[in-house]
Amino acid sequence: MTSLVQPLREDGPLPLHRILARNVGRILGEHGLSRASLARAIGMSGPGLTMKLNGKRPVDLTDLELLAAALGVKPTDLLLPQMDSNHQPSD
Fold first, then answer.
1. Rounded to an integer, what distance in angstroms lies between the CA atom of residue 38 and that of residue 49?
2. Given pLDDT bands bounded at 50, 70 and 90, which one contains residue 82?
3. In whole angstroms, how far apart are CA 10 and each of 7, 69, 76?
4. Quick one: which of 47, 48, 62, 63 has the fewest CB in 10 Å?
5. What is the C-alpha to C-alpha distance for residues 41 and 4, in angstroms, rounded to an integer?
6. CA of 54: how far to CAs of 2, 3, 24, 57, 86, in Å?
7. Contact by Cβ (8 Å): 67, 42
8. Given this model, what pLDDT does residue 91 score?
């Protein structure tokens, strides 16, 4: 079972926008899609999506739901850090 509590790293937990960006990037890569195509699919500009994933603009729940639907995953899949074999967040 996946824990909803993020384990702390030596330098502290990853900011949530970084976890979101990493998961979005990983899923895009798995499907051979670009950020630009994702932005179009959710009705957002490419720079707008980049600013949200870089933490320059807030991501609201509607954004999260749109991203998840476009990527074919659950919203929680975008917010949970990927764990390595030692159950530590992978970089």
1. 9
2. confident
3. 10, 34, 24
4. 62
5. 28
6. 25, 25, 12, 8, 27
7. yes
8. 56
CA dist., res. 22 & res. 81, Å (int): 8
Burial pattern 8-25, b for ≥16 Cβ within 10 A else e, equals: eeeeeebeebbbbbbbbe
Taking only the tens place, the pLDDT of each residue in 18-53 is 999 999 999 999 999 999 999 999 999 999 999 999
Which of these, 41, 48, 45, lies nearest to 69 by C-alpha position? Answer: 41
One DSSP character per residue, 40-90 reads: HHTT--HHHHHHHHTTSS---HHHHHHHHHHHTS-HHHHHSPPB-TTSSB-
pTM of the entire predicted model: 0.78
Note the Cα 64 to chain centre separation in Å. Answer: 9
Distance of alpha carbon 89 from alpha carbon 20, whole angstroms: 13
